[in-house]
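Course assignment 3, question 2. Fill in each field.
Student: A.L.
Task: Predict the tertiary structure for the chain below.
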Amino acid sequence: MGDLIRLKELVHKQQIYHVNGFEKIYSKFILYTLNQICRNDCIFKYNNYDVLDLPCIGGFDSTQTSEKLMKFLEESTLINNSRRHELISLGNAIQEVCHNGPILVCPNQIKVLDRKRNELTDIDGIGFGYKDKRLYLLITEAKKQKNWMHC
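Answer field:
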């Protein structure tokens, strides 16, 4: 994951790629990982009601990642107040965990469905951290913050 974040930042600085190529890789990685963790007991998909296709944000620690997310929120005028609140909660949660390894954050809402495709819940924001060959997962719901879970 750290290599993917480094590659994205390197190529972005040199302005030789279109961001959407990396976003698709990150987006697929996130859904694949969630499916693997739940052993296909649930179906995860991006919320179609979230009209904004927000970019995945990567950083080398929680401070850098949180700052990037907050900067994105400051610069974006298309995010409504409710969604902005959810993303600020995600940024605050990332900052609070003080993770000092690579983090990949997906600010898009993710629906969680059962095998019959009934909606169980949604995830307001998700972060994946990696350190010492361990994957960490941060799931946020704006009303209730969840803690890191070792996978």
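Instructor remarks: Confidence is low (pLDDT under 50) at residues 15-19. The longest strand covers residues 134-141.
Grade: pending
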